[in-house]
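This part of the workshop introduces the protein records we will be handling. Backbone structure tokens are a discrete shorthand for how the chain folds in space. Once this layout is familiar, the rest of the handout is easier to follow. The record below serves as our worked example for the rest of this section.
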Amino acid sequence: MCNERELTSRAFARAQPKDATSGVVSGLGSMTKSVGMGVAAVFAAPVLGARSGGAAGCAKGFGVGIASVVTLPVVGAFVGATQIVRGVVASPQAVYSTLRGKSWDENGHKWYSHS
């Protein structure tokens, strides 16, 4: 089981995109995941609340689910838009680096020289 920080870092891309294309893919992925998480929370939170707190827990879980279905897509939209902008901003550097023979390090999220 992962904690809240691990869950959000998995759901919302924060790594530097290589270029506009990777920024759009990353951004749309974050947006899609956030909507899915919000919808899942509407159904899961009341069930989990009922298991731990009966009817009162179910009601509390319903409130959490409603808050999640609104909040998570808003956060996902913000993160997604940020990734798209970061990708667009990185595109000139991507063109320049590619022309200079550099490669993109997928793990380090930066350009490097082969020499």
User: Anything to note?
Assistant: The helical segments are 4-11, 20-99. The beta strands are 103-105, 110-112. The chain is about 75% helix and 5% strand.
